[in-house]
## 1
Amino acid sequence: MIKPKKTSVTNKTVLEWLPPIPTNAKETLLARFADKRRIFARFESELANRLANHSDMAKVWRVLGDTPDAANALYVDVRNAFEATHKEVQRPLSKEEKKGFERVNKAINSLQDAIEKSSLPKNFRSEGYLLTCPKRLDRPDINLGLGWHDTSNLSAGFGYSIDLLGLLEIYSDLLQQHMTGLPPRAVTRRSGDPLTAAFVRHLVFQLAHSRGKEHHGLVAYVATAVLNLDASEPLDKVGVQAILKDRPPAFSQPKGKKESP
């Protein structure tokens, strides 16, 4: 009978390979800060660090619970709010954004009209173009013919045909989809401090839908920590409620919910 060979590796040495299990909110967030395998964006690491180390966060954990589950749940809400805020502040002003889309739409319509009224040939394609596929995908290259319009009746023996007029119709639809799919703005004016206002409204929106309560006081502490607000002028519950006073309808409190004063 062959006996298994004894090994000097004990359970203790194996467990030493593993990071310690967080037991409270701060340790949980610091683990996120240190674990580079899960931190894909630099801002996520800094976000976890600020939530873990800011003195105001102790007040948050007294309400939500000083546990890993509480820290992870809040982190998700804060990260979603921060991402939405970052995307929003990168967008141009509402009027400028709308004018930009109108210019693109006008240019598409103008080029479509010009092609249709021109003497450019129909049922014609210029051959000899090769659409190559990245080697990592291991797919064959495709012969491609380019035309101005109405290439659908051409023989498919050569390969694929694309006409500019058809592409413009596709891009016109894509533009409309993009415009209608844009998320609502939390801040419609850039006066005052739009970054703080946008983050507060996005975070309140996240908390209202994930927890059923807006937590104005806690939002003040979290915003102060995340945005690194001046300690001499920290955001408080009254300041949060002032920011929420004229928020857009999309960020209004869900029906049937009322924040306590």
## 2
Amino acid sequence: MKMNKKISLYVGLLLVVIVAVFGIVFYDKFNKEYKYAISLPKYEKELDPDLVKSFKEYWELFEKGEYDETYEYELPYQKFLHSKKWYKNFMLGSKKHLKFAISKIKIDPENKNIVYIYIKFHNKYKKFTQRDKWIKVDGIWYHKFIDTILPSLDY
């Protein structure tokens, strides 16, 4: 009877270890499979190199959850309206987007300092496209995040 309890205990522990190892392997595979695709290769020739650099830096920081840093890329008037603390809290919910790809880019024909980068986001729950707006102000490219205070007809 005591021997059966010991065997059961060892079998149970072995099963726990096996499940943990499988969990780690599949979790790691899932994380490697779903990463941001921060790349603009087919668009780089038509875009300002400074925009390409800012775009890549912004999304790499976003992926890491470094919202203190992404805040610095946002439009100055938006930083005036929203504190860094508010911004960080707002952005925390955005981490659910596990993967994205650039679907198209549109340069405003009337103002070359406004560029729309259309991004297809997806995770295991949903897919959607978002228009990522970048505006060049005094020679610097800024990201426009979706603002919840001011309505925007042209976002």
## 3
Amino acid sequence: MKERRTQLIGIAVVAALAVAFAVQSSGLTYPSYVFPRAAISVVLVLCAINAYFAARGKPMAEGMAARTRHRLTPAVAIGAGATILYVVGVNVLGFYVSTFVFLALLYNWFSGREFPPLPKLLARIAGAAAATALIYLVFAKVLLVQTPRGFLM
């Protein structure tokens, strides 16, 4: 029973984040709104499917995820909290700065909770920088999409 409640809480958190993203992206015009609305729709459908299986008491995943389900709850909480801070950060610091910080923190959190040695830390920061640079190239240079600048930028 407790496991089912935990699953439903996690699903509710993800659904709430999707709805918050939908509200934030409601001011977009065509064609800018197509991808966010499609992604939100997919997330909400997956949440509904997972909520159905969780309410019926059936496992949502097999294999490693099913065996380590009790360890996923803190990861969901950390990921949800980081995502909320990221959304706020995008509005304050801008898209690219917030994306870099978000990726660097999550790479470090999910790669191991102990403080890594300097070479591993630099590799994780370099990975976040490379991913952010790739996102910049795709959105700003190829697709010519204006990303949020933030209040401080």
## 4
Amino acid sequence: MVDAHYREAYADNELAWSGVWEGPPDPQALRWALAAAKATHYHDRSMMQTLATVYTVLDQPDKELDAEVTAAHSAGGYDHPPSYWALTEGLRARDLGLPDLARAAFSRVPRDDTPGCSYLPAQRYLKDLDATPAQVEPTEQFQPP
């Protein structure tokens, strides 16, 4: 029973992961990630990291941070590879309006064409950053009234 329960959680986790990386984010990804995390009683590190990633992609930074903290204290599961961390670092930098840091992080993701890997979404985000016009710095300092 435990193995079947974990296999279902793992399948939900994989669906959530592919739901945020293969094309535009799928709104179902959050439901799958939450189901996977709940099925493992929020104690599986990999499930919590996926949930944090879904929150990041869906621009919910407060919930993302809570999930990352929970993941850090979780003993079960596996830890994502460095390419995952570079990808999520790039997303955070992008969301904070730091495009140069985002580009640097996305560029650190090594080439890998395996489905579900971090390389393909990193390339997509790099392309999106390159398509965004550079912000012009204001020429005057803001003076409060």
